[in-house]
Amino acid sequence: MVCSRRFFTKSARTIRQALFVAALAGLWELAARAGRLPALLFPPFSDVAVALAAETASGEILGRLTFSLAMVGAGLCLATLSAVIVTAASMSAQIVSEWVQALMAILHPLPGIAILPVVILWLGTGNTSIVAVIWFSAMWPLVANLHTGLRSVPATQIEVGRNLGLRGARLVAHVLIPGAFPHILSGMRVAWARAWQALVAAEMVFGASGGEGGLGWFIYKRRFFMEIPGVFAGMVVIVLVGIVVERVVFESVEARTVRRWGMTAE
Predict the structure, then answer these.
(1) Model-level pTM?
(2) Which of 154, 159, 209, 265 could bridge to 126 as Cys pair (CB 3.0-4.6 Å)?
(3) CB-based burial of residue 130 (10 Å sphere; 0-12 exposed, 13-18 middle, 19+ buried)?
(4) How far apart are alpha carbons 230 and 245 in whole angstroms?
(5) In degrees rounded to 5, what are phi and psi of residue 209?
(6) Separation between Cα atoms, residue 76 and residue 246, nearest integer Å
């Protein structure tokens, strides 16, 4: 009964949001058709939809999307592995924890795109540099939330776990990670968003490597040739990917973990 109510609530919310987005698209179409804005720079939404359909049918935009997802996946995997290692080291000794907090204070506010000139000098232009920028952008939110989450687990929960015979990896898996999971999930959300943004920005700067490039490169090329509906089509795909990841991945994980465990009010 509770699950059905949540399903209908979620479905109703999705429908309301879809109607709102459809209304915005309608306003966009009307504004473009009114003729007061330059058609070259502000095409009607229908032209964007036609361009999106054409690019999808040709396979161009799907190929770029696959490339981008591969890049962001590699960067996020490296960032997650690095964050786990750094957080484990910081949890092992107070002095290491202080060093990690100092590094977070310095590097966490720094946008990944800001290290682009250094990355180009060190690694050149290409896929390795794109992955490096994604790794840097995603790592620090993960470290910050992992560190905060593990530190926030109540000592009584840890003591109860020890009294039940949990030690080492079992204590981490059954007590620390579940207790810290709201923070971990928040960190994953922020890391994904920063990685996705860094990917598109880096691709626009680096361009293609060996003829290969992702959505950022697709948008850059369409802008270069003044194919503005194609530019908006690429942006629409970037937004859609973000919505799908949030709705399908993160909300599903949240529903099966922190909501089921009663760790969030909603």
Answers:
(1) 0.85
(2) 209
(3) buried
(4) 23
(5) -115, 115
(6) 15
pLDDT per residue as tens digits for the range 102-155: 998 998 888 888 888 898 889 887 889 899 999 999 999 999 999 999 988 888
Q: Which of 115, 71, 57, 58 is nearest to 209 (CA)?
A: 71
Written as six digits, the tokens of 136 are 């840097």
Q: Is the dihedral of CA 53, 59, 64, 65 positive or negative?
A: positive
Query: Which amino acid does the sequence have at 160?
Result: V
Is the CB of residue 86 less than 8 Å from the CB of residue 100? yes
Residue 35: pLDDT band (50, 70, 90) is: confident
Nearest to 128 by CA among 46, 57, 206: 206
- What is the distance of C-alpha 152 from the center of its chain? 24
What is the C-alpha to C-alpha distance for residues 254 and 6, in angstroms, rounded to an integer? 13
Concatenating the DSSP letter of every residue in the chain gives -HHHHHHHHHHHHHHHHHHHHHHHHHHHHHHHHTTSS-TTTS--HHHHHHHHHHHHHHTHHHHHHHHHHHHHHHHHHHHHHHHHHHHHHHHH-HHHHHHHHHHHHHHTTS-GGGGHHHHHHHH-SSHHHHHHHHHHHHHHHHHHHHHHHHHHS-HHHHHHHHHTT--HHHHIIIIIHHHHHHHHHHHHHHHHHHHHHHHHHHHHHH--BTTB--HHHHHHHHHHTT-HHHHHHHHHHHHHHHHHIIIIIIHHHHHHTTTTTT-S--
Percent of the chain with pLDDT over 70: 93
What residue has token string 């770029």?
A: 64
Q: Which two tokens stand for residue 265?
A: 């009010």
